[in-house]
Amino acid sequence: MKQFCLDPTLAADTIPVADLGLCRLLLMNDSRFPWMILVPKRADVTEIYELSPLDQTMLTFETVTVSEHLRVLTGCHKVNVAALGNQVRQLHMHVIARHVDDDAWPNPVWGSGRAKPYAREAAEHFISEFTASFQERS
Fold it and tell me: By residue range, what is the domain housing residue 13?
């Protein structure tokens, strides 16, 4: 059985947050958008239907839970959830807090300008607030 390994592109573009029951939770390193990524810790999975029914349920639960916490933390107007896989084949779910005044609104965040990486302290602060909220509400 192959072991889970995070795609190198995801590893380079994100900051680790936590390991959940099924997924590795990551923060996209683009401070313009509060943007979490969930990656199921399963080897060689590229599509949701390749997960077992139990893992599909767990992925849905973790996606909804992260979405709710991101909404509460950021006060966003909309939470976008997507699994595209056009550039990174490894299955991953994007959970993005959107505000009507963000850099890309109302368009998708993909291809909207250049990413603005977090300052280390800002990333640590966001992750700390998110994980504290996550632990309080879970």
Answer: 8-137
In the chain, DSSP assigns E strands to 14-19, 23-28, 35-40, 78-82, 93-98
Q: What is the CA radius of gyration of the chain?
A: 14
Phi, psi of 115 (to 5 degrees): -60, 145
Residue-wise pLDDT for 1-33, tens only, equals: 789 999 999 999 999 999 999 999 999 999 999
Is the residue at 86 inside a domain?
A: yes
Q: Which residues of the chain have pLDDT under 50?
A: none
Which residues, including other chains, have CB under 8 Å from residue 117's CB and lie 6 or more apart?
29, 30, 31
Q: Return the residue matching tokens 């029951």.
A: 21
Residues 6+ positions from 129 with CB-CB distance below 8 Å: 73
| Domain assignment present for 2 | no
Count of domains for the chain: 1
Dihedral sign, CA of 44, 49, 97, 32?
Answer: positive
- 43, 44, 2, 37: which is closest to 20 by C-alpha? 37
Do residues 76 and 98 touch, judged by C-beta distance below 8 A? yes
